[in-house]
Amino acid sequence: MKNFGKYSVLALSAVLLFSCGNAQKGKEEGTKTATETAAADSLSKAAAQLGKVEFEESAFDFGQVKEGAQVKHTFVLKNSGDAPVIISKVTASCGCTQPEFSKSPILPGGKSEIHVTFNSEGQVGKQQKIITIQSNASNGLTTVQLKGEVLAK
């Protein structure tokens, strides 16, 4: 009986020890869930407060031009989001197409322009040049196209 008492005290201590640990674990998990929920809410609010790039036209068809002609076009974009948009980089699919753009922030509701010049020298036939725009907007990578046909000299 003496050993029974010793073992029952030991068993009771173990039960209390493990149950206290589980209670603390449950509290930590509850706090972690609340923290994760708050972080997720902050991220979704931040995402809702991003700028958004929208172009007035996604493609420009310059029709037919004689080889050697320079085609110039301006793509107009609007920030339809809730935060300023900054264009970080604009590239063209070919060295024959040169984009120019402003690095000034585009405020919500504001507009900006991307000027594109296509040099048709040596580019005979149907053409499709892709201009890729990188920015901090929610749609951070967007494209527009310049297309048409270059006739031989």
DSSP helix fraction? 25-40%
CATH architectural arrangement of the largest domain: Sandwich
Shape descriptor reads elongated
Q: What structural category do the secondary elements indicate? A: alpha+beta
Strand count: 8
User: What do the pLDDT scores average to?
Assistant: 83
> How much strand content do the residues show?
35-45%
Assembly status: single chain
Q: Kindly report how far apart the N and C termini lie.
A: 112 Å
Strand order of the largest sheet: 1-3-6-5
CATH topology of the largest domain, what is it called?
Answer: Immunoglobulin-like
Biggest sheet statistics: 4 strands, antiparallel
Q: In total, how many domains does the architecture comprise?
A: 2
The sequence of SSEs as H and E is HEEEEEEEE
Q: So what's the CATH class of the largest domain? A: Mainly Beta
Instruction: Give start-end ranges of low-pLDDT stretches.
Output: 8-12, 14-29
CA radius of gyration? 31 Å
Query: What is the number of helical segments per DSSP (H or I, 4+ residues)?
Result: 1
CATH superfamily of the largest domain: Immunoglobulins
Signal peptide: 1-25
Protein name: DUF1573 domain-containing protein
Keywords: Signal
Organism: Sphingobacterium paramultivorum
What would your notes on this structure say?
- With 153 residues, the protein is of the alpha+beta class.
- The protein folds into 2 domains: 1-48; 53-151, Immunoglobulins (Immunoglobulin-like, Sandwich).
- Helices cover 31% and strands 41% of the residues.
- It has 1 helix and 8 strands, in the order αββββββββ.
- It has one helix at residues 2-48; strands spanning 53-55, 59-66, 70-79, 87-92, 97-101, 111-119, 125-135, 141-151.
- The strands form 2 sheets. It has a 4-stranded antiparallel β-sheet, with no helix packed on it. A 4-stranded mixed β-sheet has the order 2-8-7-4, with no helix packed on it.
- Residues 1-25 form the signal peptide.
- This is DUF1573 domain-containing protein.
- Keywords: Signal.
- InterPro entries: DUF1573 (IPR011467), Ig-like_fold (IPR013783).
